[in-house]
Description:
Elements: E1 2-3, E2 6-9, E3 12-23, E4 29-43, E5 48-56, E6 66-74, E7 90-94, E8 98-104, E9 107-114, E10 117-121, E11 130-139, E12 144-152, E13 163-173, E14 183-193, E15 197-206, E16 209-219, E17 225-236, E18 242-256, E19 261-271, H1 278-281, E20 287-292, E21 303-309, E22 314-327, E23 330-341, E24 347-359, E25 362-372, E26 380-390, H2 391-395, E27 410-418, E28 424-434, E29 440-449, E30 454-464, E31 469-477, E32 481-488, E33 490-494, E34 497-501, E35 508-513, E36 534-537, E37 546-549, E38 559-561, E39 565-568, E40 575-580, E41 582-584, E42 586-593, E43 605-608, E44 613-616, E45 622-628, E46 631-637, E47 645-651, E48 657-659, E49 662-668
Parallel strand pairs: 35-40, 42-49
Antiparallel strand pairs: 1-3, 2-3, 3-4, 4-5, 5-6, 6-13, 7-10, 8-9, 8-11, 11-12, 13-14, 14-15, 15-16, 16-17, 17-18, 18-19, 19-22, 20-21, 22-23, 23-24, 24-25, 25-26, 26-27, 27-28, 28-29, 29-30, 30-31, 31-32, 33-34, 35-36, 37-39, 38-41, 42-45, 43-44, 43-46, 46-47, 48-49
Amino acid sequence: LNLTPGINIGSWRFRNESSWIYARGQNNQNKWRNIRTYVQKPIISLKADLTVGDSFSNGVIFDSLGFRGAKLESDDNMLPDSMRGFAPTIKGIANSNAIVTVKQNGFVIYQISVPPGAFEIKDLYATSSSGNLDVIVEENNGKITQFVVPYSNVPILQREGRLKYELIAGEFRSGSSNQDKPNFGQFSLIYGLPYNTTLYGGSQFSNNYQSYAIGLGGNLGSLGAISADIIQANSILPNEEHKKGQSVRLLYAKSINETGTNFQIMGYRYSTQGYYTLNEVSYKRMKGYEIRQPDGLFEGKDQLSDYHDLNYSKKGRFQVNINQQVTDNSSLYLLGSYQNYWRTTETEQLWQIGYNGNIKQINYSLNFSKSKSPGMNGDNKNIAFNISIPINDLFNRNRVNDLNSSRNSMYAVYSMNRSNDNVWVQQAGLTGTLLEDNNLNYNIQQGYAHNGGGYSGMVYANYKGKYANLGSGYNYNNDWHELNYNLNGGVVAHSGGITLSQPLGDTNILIKANDANNIRVENANGILTNNKGYAVLPYASIYKNNRVSLDINSLGENVELENSILNVVPTKGALVQAEFKTNIGYRAMVTLSKQNGSVIPFGAIVIDEERSVSGIVGDDGRVFISGLAPVGKLKAKWGQAEDQQCLFNYEISETSSKEKGIYFISSTCQSDK
């Protein structure tokens, strides 16, 4: 059981994460875990978030770590899109009133009119991690000047004048019983300087540990982007030994557009023998590990975890992430990291290489991975091949493409995997969606493991409903079989009552359409309003415009919407309301006439005062009104004089004439009183 309860009071967000595990069998368990509790508040004036309780540092300068305390951290999400991320400052000179156009890959991404003289462009959108920006200055006499601004980005870079910060005070928090909980403080500052450079630094300090960092990053244009920093650390180890050391880190990023190569990150960190992190210093002993038993009902081997040996401090770490475009429909990637240590030949490694591509609608991938950890015997190697074939597209070629189509999907899938112990596993099956709203997902697979593994299989289905998500499945192999089922959902208490929903995100939208039941929310599988007209749309984008739309084709015959589209902008962690005005009642075309038999004049206003609905009389004394009660009164008015107003009694029953949900009735003026 996983729970994430929370409450919003004004702009304060109180949150908790907890879980309960119960198992009977070889490893009996009955364990409740309070994972973390915290309160968060956006500080709009500082463009930052205040978090009090259990949280994590961002890991930009120092390694990320958990803590219990308080953190104030700048939040880029509060900035407009044109100020988020890194983009170079473009400077130039216009000889007259000119139009400056910025292009990337042939597309116009920015255009502005500037007066004569020097100009600066600081609010470019961060369109990619690197590339060339073509700047075109067109003078009012038609003269055109062009120049190229090449740039690349590493994660640390900031725009000129942008300050990012993180301030933390609290208690170190770890999930390992091998570590203490020292009090510590931490701050980091990152500031964008002129000439597309960034200065950054910070410090960590506790009773047994102090470290200081400073670094500089920059955009080198056609040479890429680079950052370099150094950390000085003074540590007291668990054996009371005092250590001093330094760690130097280099990060590099570059794209070669001509060859389709993208060095997303290439990095290297070198640490002296006396360098340790706050996480390492917090261990109670110089060497140790944990033994964890497998969760669940089945027998399994105990797992070795959280292995550490502080006698062997980290020496060098190399990391690389390269993507290479091979053809228009395929690419090759390499992801790797290599860590070695002082005074030992042990290493920690992770290497992944893969090839992804598609032939028309058929997608395929081939991947290889290798990993190794200190204290573990041998390498862990794995190779996998996957292919997915869309049966609908291949066998229904006459289908007319429709972006709004809710057509069900079906894929034939096949995978082959070879594990480290030379066991080959092959699986084949079908996966896809069913039902009108594509809210039923299914996966059927049959497999066979060579070298003694035998047959295996699975059948799984998940239904996204308006009150929760329901799932169930069956798995088997030669040695065991399993039936599983799950329920995932949200419960929201608000001024209008309690609303059940699909699983909640951190930020959500409460849809209100008074008393309009079963209205479908567009672009949200399985989300419909309940009998009070409420629904919850999870995972809203923070500090951005969210378009919320109701499907008018799902309206009942007695429901009218004044507007089916609303826009809301939630803050972080908010539950923001999108209220749609509804008219609930009968829709009717009413023919109104006077007592002398003449019809009510064209343009007269007709009102049902009790239900606050109205209409305007058209030709032949007819008026269309929605939201009417079965029995009521209408008041028609076409002037201020007493003989220019009339009251009409009306009655709508199932025997009344009806066509496409619209009732046709008539009424004669009774009185103007």
